[in-house]
Amino acid sequence: MNPNNFLGAEPLIIARLKAVLPDDVHVLSAAELAKIAGEQQPTPAVHVVYDGYRTEDTKVPAVVRVVQSWITVVVARNVADIEQGFHARQAAGPLASQVVEALYRHTLKNDKDEAFGNGPLRLAAAPNPGFDDGHFYLPLAWDCPINFISNAC
Prior knowledge:
By secondary structure, this protein is α+β, with helices and mostly antiparallel strands. The protein has a single domain, classed as Phage tail protein-like (STM4215-like, 2-Layer Sandwich). It has helices spanning 9-20, 30-34, 86-103, and strands spanning 26-29, 45-56, 63-77, 122-124, 130-132, 135-149. Strands 1, 2, 3, 4, 5 and 6 form a six-stranded mixed β-sheet that branches. Helix 1 (9-20) crosses helix 3 (86-103). The radius of gyration is 17 Å and the shape is elongated.
């Protein structure tokens, strides 16, 4: 089955995180995040950001396998040790574990219980973390495989 929305994983990832993370964690899309200035960043938070795709050979001419990359960025803030950032990193660690628990090998499904993609999310290599004025940003990357079937062959 071809997905009817190439970026349909985003609302499903957000819904999954909102369903399993504690109520005080802000789960934000890239569009929501764009409206927030750095110093207004709510914490704790998880950002969900699309990061492109790659294709993989399927050995079947009518099938194109696309593996999308989605990044969830865990954000924690603690100014107790603002120069070294130790306390902010320690605050991000448990939330990162909760995000991994929520998404690792999770199959995204819509409200009709139909799977999005062609398999569960897989943990992938992520960009480096960042630290800014007491905020610690810890990216976790996810591969989301999707098969597109062509009728052209």
